[in-house]
Structure formats: structure tokens, C-alpha cells
Amino acid sequence: MGVGETMSGGNEDRAASLDMTRGVCYLIEEKKPDLAYRMFRQLVGEGLPGLVITRQYPDRVRREKGLPEAKVLWLSHTPGEDYHNPTAIGTLAKTISRFIEDHKGEAVVLLDGLEYLIVNNGFLQTLMFVEHVNEFVMQRKAVVLIPVAPDALEEKELALLERNLEVVESPIVKMDLEMKEVGKLLDSY
């Protein structure tokens, strides 16, 4: 089942420009999370409040990814403002849940650092975390984007993630997103 398809085939709430069903966690398989950030920017641009959880320093993410107003949490063992200890995976799940609830169930979360969570917590613990977040999101109208480098995982681990999340077919979504961006540029002339 590709992005935008629903099991029932019905018209559910969708993030219009990307044709993404709300209440879904998406697994975006790519070496660098470029597509995931573009999708995130698009959804935030449509009015969804956004939270980025990343291994990159928050100010750098805001500057380099064009997200000056975004709430960014840094996965780091170094204490500081807007940081989260990567081994505190239970409180990370609560942080995500609280952010979504604070916005009445409608928000977008980009979890850029799944591999780092796996290194710090082990695969099974991280898989349980992802499944918990997924179950929470299914009951809301939020969207969670989880980029992952497929080469960083064992084939079995990637298969377990794919089984529980909606997999984004990167080339198709990238082309659709580029067409919409070009359309907006043309409309502005």
C-alpha cells in the first residue's frame, strides 16, 4: 500500500499536498533525511504545528533546514536547552504524546535519529518505542515522519519497522513534491 492509499479506500483526513493520511507514522527510507525534512516543511507550511527530534544541534537545524520557528529537540548526552537524553526513550515517547495532545491531536513530528536511538537503547527497545508512538498516533490526526538509512539496519530489523509503519516510496513522493513546488513557483509568476 503506497502513500495516500487507505485500507478502506475511503476519503479520510489527509495532508492535502502530499496526500498523506492523518493518524499515520511514515517510515522514509533514505540515506540522508532530505525528503523527510521537505515533507515536514510542507506540512508545517499548511498550518500543522511541528516538532523535530534530531541528532543535529537545534540552531543548525532551524538555519539549514529553513525552519526558523520550529520546536527542535536535540538527542544528546550533553545537557543543555532543548536537549533530550537518547537513553530516556520512555520520556521521549511522553514528550511526543504531550506535543500532539497540546495541539488537539493535530501535529507533525519528525523523528530524525532512529538509528541513534537504536545504538543507545537496542533495536527491540526502540521498536517497542516506535510501536507505542504509532499506536498513539493512530488515534489522532497527527503525522509522524521517521527517516531511516536502510543500510544502517539488519534486513530483519528493517522488515519489522516496515511491517508496523507506512513506508514512503521515496522517488514517487519526491517527484510529487517537486511537481507541487514547481507549480507553486509558476503560480507566483
What does the model show?
The protein is an alpha/beta fold and 189 residues long. It has one domain: Rossmann fold. It has 7 helices and 9 strands, in the order E-E-E-H-E-H-E-E-H-E-H-H-E-H-E-H. The strands form 2 sheets. A 7-stranded parallel sheet has the order 6-5-4-7-8-3-9, with helices on both faces. Helix 2 links the parallel strand 4 and strand 5 (71-75). Helix 3 (89-102) runs parallel beside helix 5 (123-138), helix 4 (114-121) packs across helix 5 (123-138) and helix 5 packs parallel to helix 6 (155-164). The protein is globular and about 50 Å long. It starts with 13 loop residues before the first strand and ends with a helix. The model is unreliable at 1-17 (pLDDT under 50).
Largest sheet: 7 strands, parallel
How many beta-strand runs? Answer: 9
**Which fold does the CATH topology refer to?**
Rossmann fold
Strand order of the largest sheet: 6-5-4-7-8-3-9
The overall pLDDT, averaged over residues, is 85
SSE string, helix = H, strand = E?
EEEHEHEEHEHHEHEH
Determine the fraction of residues in helical runs and give it as a percent range. 40-55%
Principal-axis shape: globular
User: What is the CATH superfamily?
Assistant: P-loop containing nucleotide triphosphate hydrolases
Rg over CA atoms, rounded to whole Å, is 16 Å
Our measurement of the CA-to-CA distance between the termini, rounded to an integer number of angstroms, reads 37 Å
- How many helices? 7
Count of the separate structural domains = 1
CATH architecture label name: 3-Layer(aba) Sandwich
Supply the helix-strand structural class: alpha/beta
CATH class: Alpha Beta
Strand content: 15-25%
Low-pLDDT residue spans = 1-17
